[in-house]
Structures
1.
Amino acid sequence: MGPAYSQQNLDTIYGNPKSVREKVEFLNEKKQNYKFMQNDGDYGHATIFTPKGIKSRFHLYWYNYHWVFYVNYFKEFLENGLPKNERWYNKDGSLEREFKYTYDKKNNLIEEKEVYFEGVFFETRLHYNHLNKLIASSYYSSDEPNEFSHWYYIRDKRNNIIETRTVDIEGEDYTIVNELNQEGKVVRVIRKYIPNWRKIEVLQKDLTYKRSVLHEYDYDEKGNKILELNYNEEAARVYSKKIFKYDSLNNLIETTAFFRPSDTTKYRTTKYVYNKDGLNTFKEELSSEEESEYESQRIFYNEDGLIIKNILNEKSLKTVLTFKYQFDKKGNWTEITKIVNGEPLYVWTRDIKYY
């Protein structure tokens, strides 16, 4: 077999791919992909449809739950390896969405066109400085040509983004400010709102300049995030608090979320254990609210770092997930079968063509 995979790079394709056809197939017609509501589409409930978001959610549920989400697309690449376009399909074979990508001479993505149906599309345009760092983006919908927004990214001398300024069709100015420490880590996120008075027909008393804290962070001497505070903008107070702990190798070993920041007796903790290769082998979640909410996972890998088994314990219910892989001559996986409690239920396939 070719180069080894880790669980972090399942989208990697070794060699020089020309196209990939990827989808999940169901071996039991009674056990299909998860839907929150009966009338949901194939890709779920109220989904913000982006290839990155869909695949991220699919990967998460494929390895960590007994059900799956849906994925079905065809993607073409340029000879330099950059994506050219991709078409996403529903179960009945109909086209759900198409994405087209354009690049500049430096291979920076400068245009992404998301095509819905009958030529209706949503377009994103991106602009870069001489260091190839993103400095501006604009968003436009073909069926509402007068509705748009422009985003401007202000950077410091080290090219860290310190402000993201958004201006919409009404001239409203929303700015997100990142306050950084000496190492360039974000320690505070602030939202500034500047109203456009010219659009107002009737003066509103509450329409004023606003500046509010959204998040605050703290880090240890190694740069690991150890504290996260999230604020309620209207009340100007902390509504959630998270604490993070790490081992000597900077692996995250514990996360604690407090339901009420002022009450440390109400919390939910997630603990992690790793093997010598830094792969997560055990995970458990404990809640102060109710012992029956205890959940755990015991994860097993093959010699190439691929998950081959995940034993789930959730509220006294045990589920065993087993995974079997097939590869092509270049070492790229082409088929993964998901077996739930001994029953093969789902097959995730990739048909890869090469230049």
Note: The chain is about 5% helix and 55% strand.
2.
Amino acid sequence: MISPLEITELLECILRFVDHWEDLRSTAVVNHAWAQSSQARLFSHIKLTGRHQPPRLLATLEDSQHLASYIKNLELRALDPILLQSFGNIPFPSLDTLTIHRPSVHDGDAAVAIQRLLSNPGLRSVTINCYFRRRADFLRIWDGCSENIRHLSYIESNGATGTSQLEEGGSDQRRRIKLESFGTSNTSEQTRLWLQDARCPFDISGITAFQFSRRIDPQFAELLAPAMESIQILSTYHPTQIHDISQLTGLKELTFHISPPFTRHFQVIYTIRRESRVYLGTIRFRLLRLPAEEVLELGQQLSELVREFPSLNLVWISVRWALAHGIVESKCFRDLEGKIRLHWDLGSDVRDSEGWNRRITL
């Protein structure tokens, strides 16, 4: 008779409460059943940086090829192009989330490696931040990419997206992939041209989440116009560069990176039409700095915000602990208790926006 502690589903439930990797290494040597479930937890999220970690993982995956099937979230940061090519040769059948950050793609081999990683069939979320010397290499990586991709963060890289004539026909004539979220560092002509190019496999007309960090130029705004009614989450580093978000009629969640003076940031929020304000339930402020003399102004602005947005139920404020000393207990914030849920996130990096595109406040 099989022991209950060897039932895979039960083990997975138990091991969800084990977070430290050393504890998981210990559970992996109990027996075969525990080894399988522990390895699945250990390898579910892999983050690699530089030159030393990747070769060890590659050797492990070569010796135990089944481990690659456990990897669901893979982050490759600042990898040497040769190491990147090695990862491109490995199939990751369970891969859901892929981040490729700042390798220099100087030749076609590295581009092919990225292309292979993007072709893993279960892939749903992709963040690309690479330097491409040749535009052709940038376009190539999307050939045959997973049709299950729904979330794309594209950080524009020098060299890859210079202006060029749009291609009206391409080798890949499949139906465009409808994205649920799109994030970009630049909403300029270069990004717009790529999205309009026939070789781009993505359609952003129905996105529900949008993140950007620079000013939206008029032509990009036209490209984004079909999504204005569908966007429910907006996240931006520079809210003062957008001035007007009145066209976002179904906005449910807003994330701003702000710093004093706060009035200019809140003025952007007040451009939301009154008939649309009933949908906004959550606002997340990421404070880049908060001098003690500005605390009262922030409290006053939040009080006014609560009066203007009757459906607002959560204000989430992320600020470094070093900046928050004595602020949380300030009377101007205590007065908001009972009106909204005011959550202070004192430990995270204010620039950490992981998960921004998968939250919908109902």
Note: The first strand starts at residue 45 and ends at 49.
